[in-house]
User: Fold these one by one.
Assistant:
Number 1:
Amino acid sequence: MQGLGDSNFKARYNKPGKSGWKGMASMEWRKSFDEAQSDLNVMAKKKGWKEAGKEGEYEG
């Protein structure tokens, strides 16, 4: 998710059924979306997370 400014990105998450996004304190700010997405992909694989669908339902 983009932060303040043009080139500030950080992984964030939203729990199913909740409306607020939370920044992941363990993740660094990155200069591009792709770098931040890569960080999130690595963390998700380690933790066994699944991507949420459009309605907040877990896919898979």
Number 2:
Amino acid sequence: MLPLTPLQQGLLFHASTTQANDDDVYAVQLEFTITGPLEPQRLRAAVDTVIKRHPTWCPILRPVRRARADHPADPVAPWRYVELDGDGIDEQIQHVCAAERVAVYNLTGQPAFRPR
């Protein structure tokens, strides 16, 4: 376990003092439009490669007297593949995005970096 970086300290502080419906200055949600067939396995492999190169993007914060970050030797970003189909795709996307914005406030036991 390593001491938190200043950015991680800010993340932890704001996550513990901000309500789920408030704006979070650290939460960044990106949306990409992909045309053509998507190969989820290749996308997942690409994300895993990025996390292996930059493990500090995927720490697990553990509450102790002095906050520490556990940087696993073989970090893995949590992954969820959502297939959208049928009517109301825009509404389905908005629902998934809203759920992810709320989930960013739970930093204990899971990394803040969560590709979805």
Number 3:
Amino acid sequence: MDKAAEDELTMGQVPGFPSGFAAVSQESPWSDPAANDLPGGVFQLGHSVDLSRSNIDVSGFVMQSLPDGSEYFIAEDFGPWHWSCCWSGPGPTYHVIEGNVLSDNPEELLQFQSRRSCCCLSADLDVVSLHADEVFANADDHAACCFKVNTRVSVRDEERFRVLGSLAGACCSCLASEHRIVDGDRHVVGKVAHWSSGAHIEFPPGALTSEKAGILAAALVADLRRR
């Protein structure tokens, strides 16, 4: 192996990352129907997405899939106590909606349901397919520091990725923070960039739709933590 290849491999590995969980499949491109493993096949994301804070009356994010240009709306459902850190049990819910959220019949595709056992802990997010009434993915953070991110992404009870980085940029309007998406072989395979009004996600090559939804849940966990 030449020096450039060794340097690239070193940069792509994260020392101390736990081994023994599933690596992402690299077989199917995003547009391959085989990559969409969710019931109904109506929710599909490209190789990356942009999330922008909504400027309409409905709180949430506008999410654009790239390169296909599909748009979804992620509506936030926060109770009175959820805007503070003093809550436990079931928490805020994010609703993924296709079409115009202000129309009479927007179609809700997924829900991201949060919960936490104590007000001093990070929230977990379960990803629910409304077509099958199935919890198929989960994101939960294991960081020991309030300003660190170590979020485990699982699909159907099997860990696929970790999202690692710093939370500082997501909490400040003048900074941005970039989190690494790491697979089971300890390689960096994607990234999540956060700033105060949105985020950009670059998914691992060949990731399944369920895996992308789990990574999106990890980005929303970071959004919850910065509130």
